[in-house]
Amino acid sequence: MNEQPHFILDGRRVPFEDGQTLMTAALEAGVYIPHLCFNPEFTPHGSCRVCLVKVNGRVQAACTTPAAAGLTVQSEIEELRELRRGILQMLFVEGNHVCPACEKSGACQLQAVAYYVGMLAPHYTHFYPRHPVDASHPEAVIDFNRCILCELCVRASRDVDGKNVFAIQGRGLQARLVVNTPSGQLGATSFSIDDKAAQVCPTGTILIKHRGYETPIGQRLYDRKPISMVGDVAQVPESQGGRRHD
Amino acid sequence: MAEPMTFAQTVRDIVRRHGGLSTRLLQILREVQDHLTWLPSEALEQVAEELGLSPDKVRGVAKFYSFLYTDPRGSYDILFSDNITDRMLGNRELLHYLCERFGIGIGETRADGVVSVGTTSCTGMCDQGPAALVNGYTLTRLDRARLDRIVELVNGRIPLEQWPREFFEVTSNIRRADILLGRHFADGAAVRAVLRRGPEAMLDELVKSGLRGQGGAGYKSAAKWMACRNAPGEVKYVVCNADEGEPGTFKDRVLMQDFADLVFEGMTLCGRVIGARQGFVYLRGEYRYLLKALRETLQRRRETGLLGEAILGDPSFNFDIDIHLGAGAYVCGEESALIESLEGKHGVPRIRPPFPTTHGYLNRPTVVNNVETFAAAAKIAVEGGEWFASRGTAESKGTKLLSLSGDCERPGIYEYPFGVTVQRVLEDCGARDAQGIQMAGPAGHTVSAKQFGRRICFEDLATGGSFMVFDRSRDILDGIRNFTQFFVHESCGFCTPCRVGTSLMRDLVTKVHTGHGTRQDLEEMRKLGRIMQVACHCGLGQTAPNPVLDSLDEFPEAYERRLRSTAYEPAFDLNAALEEARQLTGRRDPGAYLNERDLLLGAMP
After folding, report:
1. pTM (2 decimals)?
2. Looking at this predicted complex, what is its ipTM?
């Protein structure tokens, strides 16, 4: 009998097909591995490092590691939770994330993953960078304080919308999400809230105007169930509190 | 700026000279900047248009490299090398002095646009510092007298070509030669040998030699060449990594300056073995002064039939070499980032696998080796693998070039068989009172005196060649803090733990260094370091915490003597924060101070 190849993830057999990564195979098998810059609709990026798993004892990003038969993968172990917590804390102090004052609170993937890995406080010293807010577009607003440089909007706008509205520029801590116009203003682009790029942000960086607080706090996407059961905000339809257009 | 017409014409000419190829983007931007002193938006947009690239892509490249400027800079742009070895030689005092003479702050451009002064990462002149770059050209052995003269030259708008030649003199300082630097090498000998023996026999010799990557990673060269040779595809490439960015290393600079033929020969025979027709040298921007001579050497080799079409008359042997100049990005020393940069992009390391041997430059099979590795390969071609393997240890065959700097009487290049002890090296270079060394650069190992019996080889202390000596008059923590700042500057910013972690680490070390740290901060450094070591995307971030983690073990007293006895100290200076409030409210009463000590200090005139 021809058995489908599989690897072992936290003691469970996860089958895979050629070309799949640990992440895509796990996702298909219904096993959640926390992640931020990964979105199944796009080529893996491997930059946020939240999806770290132990592959035959070695720490690797699940989203960029090709699945292979015979691998033993660990994910839900305290050592990795601690690593992931540290990375989440770094993201929180790098930007200005004020959850109680954020429209996305409760439906924010960054916040939900932070809860999932048991992060209770940012721990590290805040950088308090100065970032602008761009409200030049009639339908959307960009709050750069909340950007985690996952490049999903960059990829979506370039690869799906064909508009190339966004880019990352600069090096190191100076790396920034920028809008590709001479003025740097979103209002000067062809960006539309129907774009894929408007649906993929895992934080509250790209927000739709005129629709604030439609769902009360307490009834939002991640308010009652953890992200491991609900999935990514970008994959959940708007009618159910996500960002994907119905 | 020049006249609009001239400006547009200049950009067009440059792009045309580079064949309108987007892989030449970094080279094009460098040349445009040479003409304009910086890269204004109009220039970037025009380059984008001429190359058929989107403007954001071109701007992204311009914003990534330290030596490319998207804001105006002086016509004379002076950057002090700020490695710890430059600091040992007094560069900070000179930097402040020069800024004072020009009436500007560090990193500023004078209002008349004539001059700007700043700092840059190690320029590889550690044995002849304090060093700097002026418009990318190396200045060595700076002192006040030289700076006074430079102020006159700049204020007199004297072109660089008319500056005294000795300001730019770079000496090789070879102090100890073994099989690589010592024996005479006749041009063409290696190329002839590989033609005579054939590629398979050459690979056999390489296997016998046991040669490993001399950049420090130590991957078996024969395995790499073989993997590339066997990789499917007609078009393959040879890349020489001369992006010698590890602070304290300068042996590749000496090889490129004095032994370029040997290096080019190694590349050529690699081309023959793997079946490549094109090679590239990725030369770090800091070594720009070498470019002209290297191009002349390549031309001479073409004229003597050692390079180009039908090498040595064999119509099946075609191989040429082109030189790409970097623009100030340490991360490009990582081979996949280097390939990205060679392709004209910003240098972010690729996801691996696939590896360059199958998917390298333009996704074609590519061998990337260090300068010293190619030089050794050329020698092996002539003398044979066994000859090479007779030197060194069981796992580390042959010799290693070490770049000695810091507190020693005879800094320079030392070639030793692998396995030499740290102690022996220290004795040879005249380091009388060493308390520790930084081996293999900031990304390597901090080694204290109790470990000076250790051996330099892949089995023990692996190194790319950097060897910086700290004597007992030095504060190790000065060096460690300098290294953490280096990694902050050089992180590419792609992955979270490196982008953020390097800054967090720098801030923790600074907190302790300035006397505000507690024991808890040391534990915090260890935790953060462990996260970075396993979580970062590439070797840069994974090794960035090494100097901190090593020195916490090797030099605990350097940290502990600065600690506060309290269990916790905030990350900012409470008293300084209160001072602003005191000034605003005009209060100087005891209630406006945290404690009596601050009150007493505050009451002092």
Report:
1. 0.94
2. 0.97
